[in-house]
Design a protein that fits this description.
Layout lengths: L50 E4 L4 E4 L3 E6 L6 E7 L11 E8 L2 E4 L7 E8 L14 E5 L7 E2 L2 E3 L10 E6 L8 E6 L9 E5 L3 E5 L7 E7 L6 E2 L4 E3 L34 E3 L4 E4 L3 E5 L8 E6 L7 E7 L3 E4 L7 E8 L11 E5 L15 E3 L2 E4 L2 E2 L2 E5 L3 H7 L1 H14 L3 E3 L22 E3 L2 E2 L1 H16 L3 E5 L9 H8 L9 H6 L1 H16 L15 E5 L11 H18 L4 E3 L32 H4 L8 E5 L12 H19 L5 E6 L7 H16 L4 E4 L2 E2 L12 E2 L7 H16 L3
Parallel strand pairs: 2-8, 9-16, 19-25, 29-30, 29-38, 30-33, 33-34, 34-35, 36-37, 37-38, 39-40
Antiparallel strand pairs: 1-3, 3-6, 4-5, 4-7, 7-8, 10-11, 11-14, 12-13, 12-15, 15-17, 18-20, 20-23, 21-22, 21-24, 24-25, 26-27, 27-28, 31-32
Length: 748
């Protein structure tokens, strides 16, 4: 927007903590679980199947007092174990030495007979305690002579009590002749009742990543021999903590003893829910829940219910990704949902969120040809070249609340003039910056981070529906660089920035502002218009999205701005593949690039503006579908009066930006332009020159700042065309509507 007191626009923080898992590292799609060198396949507990560990099958020379251990199955806490003298396990012909249900994944067995063969098996105990046992394959072992000594590993590094300093820490013990497998455990407690890592490795070392020196860890190793009995080594500790930093850890406020998750032994770190937002409404009957990844967690339990006590469950599932697809929800129904790391007790649940499903039947699928597309550097609609001259009307959603008659008169004027594209704001953020700071009646959409006014959004719905009825398409930015209507100032204020206004550096690099901004984008793209019944991402009446109005990063490296544009563009495209996308920038550049016809500019400020943004770089971003720029000659360093120098620069500015976009196979839109003046001859001279040149070069599109239908906004900026109300600028209006038709009727 023109600078005239009118300027208007996760990364998810994840709590780094460790809970019950086999790997203490992030096991997301781009970062595999850490394993030790030579780790056997499946060592990291990614399997849902129970597996016997020690003693090995057919191991000999075992002690008459030993530990039977197995790997847990996903989501199972109790196990039925049987030990017998034969494989029948029938309890009649063969006495069952052990036949009991235990918590955990091991059991101590004493007073076995020497030089005797035993058989053992384990089965998960289902949550319904049914008798249908799914036994793991049976193992056997043979004891040695009475009094035989167990095999014990000597721990070598790290030393006991050292602090964690390296990003990747290597644990080493002595290599024992004849031993090809070792069991390594890492725990928050010396009892190892719920280890955070429990691995089988085939060498005498393992590397672990992601340890935090503020915590206290314990580790130990046991050989798993084919012959003889392996026993646990000494226990060593590492880290500078004393356990008090962890909920319920040794010495902690709970006085925990390292028991089951959630009972004071292991830290209970809740999952952070992402989508849908709390109290979201108009949710589709089929969609995906999303939440943050917890480091090292492979499985999550999600519950969806129609009551807050979760007694009437719609879904109760364990999944291996931070996402769950649901379908078949009831229309107009309120639901509640929560998530936890699988296996945690009730203290491990996330917050409870509520949402309401849509009441209207889903709209019919939209045909792609109904959307404006790009082909051969041109806009195309229904297979034909689409050129347009339209207007900005940023204020329409706000006036749908303040005085909807203003909106109706504006659309009447637009339709009469033949306007087919309107650019307006699809945002209004907070009460700390811009107009809303002084006027509580302003139609704010985002009232607080992630909190959206449904009434304000319904005003936006109605404006889009009204325009659609008249054949108008909308270009919609998501946020303002300037303070008006909140802008980045509001996001920065929410995040506690000391200099919130136009502080792009803070906005781009702050995790909270970026999360809130992406949340807003996600909300709007997925919103279902309450009038048309069509999701915004599926609405053909939307011509394109813009990332930010007049974004820049003064004094910064333009590559930073380009990279941020690309990150946001990729996020938008991941949700909405139907619509075109552009930056919303002024079109400034850095270093006077050779792509511009520099000799045509009496002042090259706009080509070397030091605004931290480069049109040449930005338009080359693959996810950006077309180029855009603004033109205000006086503010851009050219003559305020209409002179030959000004008009020559004006023509060069338009053609250079169009040519640069075309070199990347993209169209170009001059989506703001204006010449100060109150409907006088100088304004007409400037606009007539611009319109004629646009027609000469077959410009893809332009949007004046701005055509108004009455006194509303007529005097807000001197370059406006006011018709039929306000000043009744007949000559300007007639020239404009002729230009609209001329540009629309140009051939390829």
């Amino acid at each position: 927007m023109k600078r005239k007191a009118l300027y208007f626009l996760s990364t998810i923080f994840i709590v780094a903590a460790f809970i019950q898992c086999d790997s203490v590292t992030d096991s997301g799609p781009n970062r595999p679980p850490v394993t030790g060198p030579g780790t056997p396949p499946g060592d990291n507990n990614n399997s849902n199947e129970l597996e016997l560990i020690s003693p090995k099958d057919q191991a000999t020379g075992q002690s008459t007092q030993l530990e039977l251990s197995w790997r847990k199955a996903a989501g199972i806490d109790q196990y039925h174990i049987q030990l017998a003298g034969s494989e029948s396990f029938d309890g009649e012909t063969d006495t069952l030495i052990v036949d009991e249900v235990v918590n955990g994944n091991s059991i101590e067995v004493e007073e076995l007979s020497a030089e005797t063969t035993y058989h053992w098996r384990v089965s998960p105990v289902a949550s319904d305690n049914s008798d249908d046992r799914q036994w793991a394959p049976t193992f056997s072992f043979t004891t040695g002579e009475s009094g035989s000594s167990p095999i014990i590993a000597d721990l070598l590094a790290p030393e006991d009590g050292v602090e964690v300093e390296e990003e990747i820490l290597k644990f080493i013990w002595n290599e024992i002749t004849g031993i090809d497998t070792y069991r390594y455990q890492l725990s928050f407690t010396p009892e190892f009742s719920d280890p955070i890592k429990d691995s089988l490795v085939t060498t005498n070392e393992i590397e672990v990543e992601g340890l935090d020196n503020t915590y206290l860890y314990y580790w130990r190793v046991s050989p798993v021999p084919n012959e003889g009995t392996g026993a646990w080594s000494e226990i060593r500790s590492i880290g500078a903590g004393d356990g008090s930093a962890l909920p319920g850890g040794p010495g902690g406020p709970d006085g925990g003893d390292g028991g089951e998750p959630g009972d004071g032994g292991a830290p209970v770190i809740p999952v952070s829910l992402v989508s849908p937002a709390d109290l979201a409404d108009n949710q589709p009957l089929s969609f995906a829940f999303e939440w943050t990844v917890l480091p090292g967690v492979d499985l999550y339990q999600i519950q969806v219910a129609s009551d807050q006590q979760f007694t009437d469950l719609t879904a109760d599932e364990v999944v291996d990704t931070p996402q769950f697809d649901i379908d078949g929800l009831d229309a107009g129904q309120i639901y509640f949902w929560r998530v936890r790391a699988d296996g945690f007790a009730d203290e491990g649940w996330s917050e409870i969120r509520q949402f309401e499903t849509e009441t209207a039947a889903p709209a019919p699928p939209v045909v792609n040809s109904e959307f404006v597309q790009v082909q051969n550097s041109k806009f195309v609609l229904n297979g034909e070249t689409f050129r347009f001259a339209g207007t900005n009307a940023y204020y329409l959603p706000n006036y749908e609340k303040l005085d909807s008659r203003v909106v109706d008169r504006a659309f009447n004027a637009f339709e009469e003039a033949g306007v087919s594209v309107v650019r307006m704001w699809a945002f209004y953020d907070g009460y700390d910056c811009g107009y809303s700071r002084n006027d509580p009646n302003e139609n704010v959409i985002q009232t607080a981070p992630g909190e959206y006014s449904e009434s304000a959004l319904q005003d936006l719905d109605r404006v889009i529906a009204k325009g659609k009825e008249r054949g108008i398409r909308f270009i919609l930015p998501f946020i303002n660089y300037w303070d008006e209507l909140g802008g980045i100032c509001q996001y920065n204020t929410w995040a506690g920035a000391s200099r919130p206004s136009t502080n792009m550096e803070f906005f781009m690099n702050n995790e909270q502002t970026q999360k809130w901004f992406k949340d807003y984008i996600n909300m709007l793209l997925n919103r279902v218009n309450t009038v048309t019944g069509i999701a915004y991402k599926d609405e053909p009446a939307i011509f394109a999205w813009q990332i930010m109005n007049e974004g820049r990063n003064r004094g910064g490296d333009p590559r930073d701005m380009r990279d941020w544009y690309q990150e946001i563009a990729q996020y938008i495209k991941s949700i909405d593949s139907n619509h075109l996308l552009t930056t919303g920038e002024d079109g400034f550049d850095e270093g006077t690039p050779s792509e511009y016809s520099r000799g045509e500019y009496s002042n090259t400020y706009v080509l070397r503006a030091q605004e931290g943004t480069s049109y040449v770089m930005n338009v080359a971003i693959p996810e950006i579908d077309y180029g855009n720029a603004h033109w205000y000659a006086g503010d851009f360093g050219f003559d305020h009066g209409v002179t030959d120098n000004q008009l020559r620069a004006q023509r060069a500015w338009i053609k250079d930006h169009a040519d640069i976009a075309a070199s990347h196979g993209k169209p170009f839109v001059l989506d703001e332009y204006g010449q100060p003046g109150w409907g006088d001859s100088s304004v007409l001279r400037n606009y007539e020159d611009l319109w004629a040149f646009a027609e000469e070069i077959k410009l893809d599109g332009s949007l004046i700042w701005q055509l108004t239908a009455d006194g509303t906004k007529c005097y807000e900026f001197g370059g406006n065309i006011c018709y039929p109300g306000g000043r009744n600028d007949v000559n300007l209006y007639n020239g404009f509507i002729q230009h609209i038709q001329n540009l629309k009727n140009l051939g390829d």
